[in-house]
Write a structure and sequence with these properties.
The structure holds 2 protein chains of 2 kinds.
Chain A: E1 3-14, E2 17-28, E3 32-36, H1 43-51, E4 58-63, E5 66-67, E6 78-81, H2 93-103, H3 108-121, H4 137-149, E7 155-159, H5 167-184, E8 187-192, H6 195-201, E9 204-209, E10 212-217, H7 219-224, H8 229-234, E11 239-247, E12 250-253, E13 256-259, E14 269-275, E15 281-283, E16 291-299, E17 304-310, E18 313-319, E19 328-332, E20 338-342, H9 358-368
Parallel strand pairs in A: 3-8, 3-9, 6-7, 7-8
Antiparallel strand pairs in A: 1-2, 1-4, 4-5, 9-10, 11-12, 11-14, 12-13, 14-20, 15-19, 16-17, 16-19, 17-18
Chain B: H1 2-34, H2 45-49, H3 54-84, H4 87-98, H5 105-116, H6 121-128, H7 140-165, H8 168-176, H9 181-192, H10 194-209, H11 213-218, H12 226-235, H13 240-270
The chains are: A alpha+beta, B mainly alpha.
Chain lengths: 371, 273
């Protein structure tokens, strides 16, 4: 894949606090790439460095082979869809979208034609004369996208563009954004803290935490082969338990030895073992060495979320079968359900559901929106 | 509910009494004097008397328009620069802008006299440098300087307040779309700060057009502004009525300019978020 932009050893701090630590990343042409991470992980700063709104303290930003550290935002072929749209309140829909072309002193006829094209791309025909402050969130969003795309930038940066929309609209816009990206062939760099959004839209996901890149990969890789406890926990739900690898293809955890597909570890190396809640089958206690007591069952629509106490460690299981609270069950785990990871500084911090609460999750999600 | 509305009516009384005594009644007096002669009989003579003050009117309007314009030319960039400084600095700059207002207008004007006088501070320096003398006191330039100096904070303050409220993402969005510094200013910052400009202009124009003290002291009595004329009329019992008529015309002029200004600011406010 042809590289369009490259970040080499980028570091940035604000008021002495390191926000980005030696970021290395390249982005291919026409790629839909998502920077995913919790609030404060440095994803927005990375985006702002690419956009030209921040200068890195260290490292190089390379655009199509040229270093652009000192090129100001208005001279970069990179446009941004801002978090809260940042539409110009003194201009109507037409003039907002035409802004970039007016600056380029395009002929009037061409401006009219291209704005019309953009309006049809974002399904806002007939909105030309509308006041942008009177539009709904979703409509403002579309105007912001049209405004950023009209000058045919090489890269479009999107900073949590769907954060302010409600769930249903968000799903529709996800599809639309993906379609627009395919139609235009423009490289999209998308920032979000919403892992589901990242998985469903991206060609490549970059998981960030604490100013560092944790993992880069396709959504499937990131989900199935997380590199450490942070990624495993942040992307989807995960049971993460301490284990040891006595030999290749064998892992020992929760007092039992299991067959697995992983290898390449030192003999008896301590590891983190990830088992996804949906990969665990609920069986009767005599059918599996791993048994536990059900301590909580929540109906989630498609499946039940079952919390099981296995020797003091709480596991989460997602199953379409109902089990009684207090029942003793067996947990059946196949070799390909087990994913073994090296120990990292995130080991032991995640993947235990003993203090699990949906409510807490949502609360922390709410303040993640504001970064 | 009824008790409460009684109470609120009662609470409004002092204010109503105050307004009637000190705003409505004086206005009625002005109106009464404007259309009567010293004996109290109805007359339109005062209207004809206005004719002899025509040049003063024109001069006053001209000087206050120029002063307002100068305040805008100086104040707008100043407000813009301050609004872009980091927050700690902004407070210091605003403090410096406001500082002269802590001193009484009369004292400030006297100090300006002392500085600009033919034998004053400035000419003292020029003389020491063998650069000759400049005659400042008594010129229209000195009066303009006084007006601009005294009323500049009234221009900077409202513009700065409005600019400070402009979402920084809007200016970022403009530069993102290809606007350099100058065009960010003209295409986004300026249109969005219009409401501040309108109130700044109003707040400078109104005191400028009615000023009398500045012109007396810095004008050195060589010419008169409309404020001085009004003051002089009221110092003499026989010209009370003419003074009232001039005041009335001034009020109407100011009201008209306020109405025009408000129309502008209404339009710009509509489009602010």
């Amino acid at each position: 894949m042809e590289k369009i932009i490259e970040l080499k050893n980028i570091s940035k701090s604000f008021d002495g606090e390191a926000v980005l630590k030696h970021i290395d990343l390249y982005i291919g042409n026409s790629e839909f790439i998502t920077l995913l991470g919790p609030s404060g992980c440095g994803k927005t700063t990375t985006l702002r460095i690419i956009g030209g709104f921040e200068k890195p303290d260290e490292g190089d930003v390379i655009f199509e082979g040229t270093r652009i550290n000192d090129v100001p935002a208005h001279k970069r072929s990179v446009n941004t869809v801002f978090q809260k749209y940042a539409l110009f309140p003194h201009l109507n829909v037409f003039e907002n979208i035409a802004f970039a072309l007016r600056l380029q002193k395009c002929p009037k006829e061409e401006i009219r034609r291209r704005v019309k094209e953009m309006l049809s791309l974002v399904a806002l025909e007939g909105f030309e004369r509308k006041n942008v402050t009177l539009l709904s969130g979703g409509q403002q969003q579309r105007v912001a996208i049209a405004r950023a795309l009209i000058s045919h930038p090489k890269i479009l940066l999107l900073d949590e563009p769907l954060g302010a929309l409600d769930l249903k609209l968000r799903k529709d816009m996800q599809n639309e954004l993906k379609n627009i990206q395919k139609q235009t062939g423009i490289t999209f760099i998308y920032v979000t803290h919403d892992q589901e959004e990242a998985l469903s839209m991206s060609d490549t996901v970059v998981v960030m935490a604490d100013g560092e890149i944790q993992q880069i990969g396709t959504p499937i890789d990131i989900y199935n082969e997380p590199v450490n406890a942070f990624v495993a926990d942040f992307i989807g739900e995960s049971n993460i338990v301490d284990g040891v690898m006595p030999a290749d293809r064998t892992v020992r955890f929760s007092g039992h030895t299991f067959e697995c597909l992983d290898g390449g570890f030192a003999a008896n190396e301590a590891v983190d073992v990830v088992i996804r809640p949906e990969d665990i089958d609920v069986v009767s206690p005599d059918q599996s060495p791993l048994t536990g007591t059900v301590t909580g069952v929540t109906f989630k629509g498609v499946h039940y979320e079952i919390i099981v106490d296995v020797g003091g460690f709480k596991w989460m299981i997602q199953s379409t079968d109902f089990v009684e609270e207090g029942a003793r069950i067996g947990l059946k785990i196949g070799p390909d359900d087990i994913h073994v990871m090296k120990k990292s500084r995130y080991s032991g911090l995640y993947g235990d559901y003993s203090s699990f609460s949906d409510e807490l999750d949502e609360l922390s999600d709410a303040d993640k929106v504001e970064e | 509910m009824r008790k409460r509305s009684l109470l609120s009516t009662a609470a409004a009384y002092p204010h109503i009494v105050w307004m009637v005594l000190f705003i409505v009644a004086p206005l009625l007096f002005v109106l009464y004097y404007a259309f009567t002669d010293p004996s109290g009989a109805f007359t339109l003579e005062n209207v004809t008397a206005l004719g002899s003050h025509k040049t003063t009117f024109v001069l006053s309007i001209a000087l206050s328009v120029i002063a307002t314009f100068l305040c805008f030319i100086i104040g707008y960039p100043l407000a813009w620069i301050i609004s872009r400084a980091d927050p700690g600095r902004q407070r210091i700059y605003m403090m410096l802008i406001m500082l002269p207002m802590w001193t009484n207008l009369l004292i400030r004007t006297y100090s300006m006299m002392a500085i600009m006088d033919d034998g004053g501070f400035l000419n003292g320096i020029l003389a020491a440098l063998h650069l000759g003398k400049v005659h400042l006191i008594g010129t229209k330039g000195a009066v303009l300087f006084g007006m601009v100096y005294d009323f500049l904070p009234y221009m900077v303050l409202p513009i700065y307040t409005v600019m400070n409220k402009i979402d920084p993402r809007l200016t970022e969005a403009a530069s993102d779309l290809g606007a350099g510094g100058w065009r960010v200013l003209t295409k986004v910052t300026m249109p969005l700060s219009m409401s501040g400009v309108v109130s700044g202009i109003t707040m400078v124009f109104v005191p400028s057009i009615s000023t009398f003290y500045i012109s007396q002291k810095l004008g050195g009595g060589s010419f008169e502004l409309i404020g001085d004329t009004i003051e002089r009329q009221f110092q003499n019992e026989t010209t009370y009525n003419v003074g009232a008529m001039i005041s009335l015309v001034m009020m109407v002029l100011i009201l008209i300019s306020l109405a025009v200004m408000n129309k502008f600011s209404d339009e710009s406010e509509e489009i602010l978020p």
